[in-house]
Amino acid sequence: MRGELSGHPGFRKGRRRELIPSLCLFDPVYASGLRDLLNLLLIARFRNKTIEVNIYEPLRRDYLNKGKNAASFFDHKKDYLSDQISKLFSWLNEVEDRLLYNRSSNTGVDDAEYSKEENLVLELLDKLKVHSEDNRYFLPKAAGFKLINCLYNLDKKRFISGVKALQNAVKYGDDHNYVVRQVDKLINEIDGIDFDVIALSAYMIGEKESCLSYRALQDACIGSARNRSGMLDARPLISAELGRQPIHLAKMITITAEGVTGDISEFEVMLDLFKTNIKEINKLRFEQEIKSCIGILLGSDTMYPLVKWLGDEKAEEGSCFLRMQQVLAAVKKKWGTQDLIQV
Predict the structure, then answer these.
(1) Which of 19, 57, 308, 326 has the most CB atoms in a 10 Å sphere around its CB?
(2) Which residue has the higher pLDDT, 248 or 1?
(3) pTM of the predicted protein model
């Protein structure tokens, strides 16, 4: 997925440059968070009589007590363990769906009314969220047990062939429409969160001329449904990734501009990325995210030209250059940089 194995078409070919924290799928530290979560989950759930009789008792009796290597035991029980883990994920998905339904339907359920099972799932997901914050990677709300189940059951051959199909379409296709047709073809074969994982890997990992473009990724996202709510359901990971980019960039440039001093060249790079992202993002489907950006930028007087550009001027092309120059001038003045831009 991160292009670290030779089977991936982007193996040792680089990745898309990011200034903001990586999506969980592309941060190696995410794996340690999953490992901790699964350890806690197995301790909590694999303590029933069936598991005791089929796993723990024969393991102790026939292997551990006799000093034998337990590896052969787990090889022998591979199918049984796989079946139990599949049942565990089915249970987790049911509980998670119930939690999502309660939240979306405003049933008024408070923490005291959650069942023991629901509290366990919430606690585990909260621990993973804390792990993401401590290690500075992006964990969207959609990255719950459905994603973990997808990663656990990921068909590697299908994943690799899907990434290759998209990147070959980009590299050898005639135009954007050809890429869109290949995206639609893949969606007909692989839909849901599995497609999101494939498309995001094709977008993030590999040579620049082969990677799926922002435009193609966004088209796959928007084309999945007629409205925003349908899009969020159909393309949960892709919509989360596209939606968080301008927000994280807005936070970054605001925090940087509020510093006592800084590198103006680096700030210009951040500002240019933000400008490009705002120009590319669909203003209707991601209207809420743009409003969030305005709220973030309002926290800094230096960012007022961007607030005006995003708000009153609806990010129009004609006023873009002027607003960017005004922000640069204000930051240079604040940092005491010489050769100020006069606007």
Answers:
(1) 326
(2) 248
(3) 0.91
Q: Residue 109: pLDDT band by 50, 70, 90 thresholds?
A: low
Residues 32-51, buried b or exposed e (16+ Cβ, 10 A)?
A: ebbeebeeebeeebbeeeeb
Q: How many CA atoms lie within 13 A of 134 on its CB side?
A: 10
309-328 pLDDT, tens per residue?
999 999 999 999 999 999 99
Number of domains in the chain: 3
Q: Is residue 84 domain-shared with residue 38, that is, in the same domain?
A: yes
Enclosing domain of residue 202? 153-223
Per residue, the 3-state secondary structure of 157-226, as one string, reads HHHHHHHHHHHHHHHHCCCHHHHHHHHHHHHHHCCCHHHHHHHHHHHHECCCCCCCCHHHHHHHHHCCCC
Q: Please check whether residues 203 and 123 belong to one and the same domain.
A: no
Same domain, 121 and 217: no
80: tokens are 């049984």
